[in-house]
Amino acid sequence: MADSEPQREDRPVLFLDSGVGGLPYLSAAAAEFPNERFIYLADRRNFPYGERAPEEVQRAILAAAGAAVAAFRPKVSVVACNTASVVALDALRAEYAIPFVGVVPAVKPAAEQSRSGRIGVLATARTVEDRYLLGLIERFAADCYVLSVAGGDIVTFVERRYFVSQAVERRTVVQEAARRLREARIDTVVLGCTHFLHVERELAEALGPDIRVIDSRAGVTRRLGTVLREHGLARSAERTGERTGDRTADARARMYVTCGPGDSLDADSLEAESEDYQRFAEQFGLTYNGVLPVEAV
Ligand code: DGL
Questions:
Q1: What does the alpha-carbon distance between residue 34 and residue 52 come to, in Å, rounded to a whole number?
Q2: How far apart, in whole angstroms, are the C-alpha atoms of residue 14 and residue 167?
């Protein structure tokens, strides 16, 4: 078989997000599925999704997915972004012929684990307002008190200032959201935006020892495994050795960021930004591979 036509199971698993939020999700999947190869695409051109209208989020994620499907021919995609998942999972499934695994706020486990029946959901403004989240709450937490808090400032901080900030700034940026959640006397909070995983420690500290913090990593990794098996797409250890000869010769996980027409960045600042993305990639064991053009929404 020609190199341009890899067997279905040899194709990569694609992770999509508006930025770096999905990296901890990829990391969890890479640990669980050592024979798989991964592509991570951060749609920095259209970041932040959480401050956009639903139609814009849908256009952005469809464009990012389309560019990645054409460039990398993934076998399955994880939409490692709650905002894009709640808004556009159906549209993605209708448009592209690969399975999509969504990341949505872990409301069900939170309702099950809460002792007091008071839970918090920390997410983007778009997710907090979206009827998908309201549906999850009605379905799985109807007998709970649920406080949803939008934390767009935390998202922007993680994407833009994570590596240039001092510890004190990281602690400060989570204070307001933590205060609101504490005052509501919740005992469990859902990290309903993937970016928050990067400041999980600071959030847990600010919330205090009585509030449990949960996310969707375990559920999403399990679901990815099921989808790979059910579609006959899981890659065996034998095939991994066969194709690469040496596992380490093949970059197992590669990261790209989007760029696009009308990009406000000039070449210099794109380069500076790239250094940050490179550091994020390294931190999670990925190789940074540069830009992939997409349409601006
Ligand atoms: N990481 C995304 C999420 O899980 C959203 C970040 C953004 O606003 O772009 O919701």
A1: 36
A2: 32
What is residue 216's predicted lDDT score, i.e. its pLDDT?
Answer: 97
* 132-169 exposure pattern, b = at least 16 Cβ within 10 A, e = fewer: bbeebbeebbeebebbbbbbbebbbbbbbebeeeeeee
CATH 3.40.50.1860 domain span(s) along the chain: 8-103+218-293, 107-215
Do residues 145 and 117 make contact, with C-beta atoms less than 8 angstroms apart?
yes
Q: Spelled out in words, what is the top-level CATH class assigned to the domain 107-215?
A: alpha beta
For residue 267, the model assigns a pLDDT of 66
8-103+218-293 adopts what CATH topology? Answer: Rossmann fold (3.40.50)
* Mean pLDDT within 10-14: 97
pLDDT at 128 over 50: yes
Residues in contact with ligand 1 by the CB-under-6-Å rule are 17-19, 21, 47-50, 81-83, 124, 127, 155, 193-195
For residue 150, report the distance from its CA to the centre of ligand 1, in Å: 11
Return the pLDDT at 263.
78
- Distance between Cα 230 and ligand 1 center (Å): 29
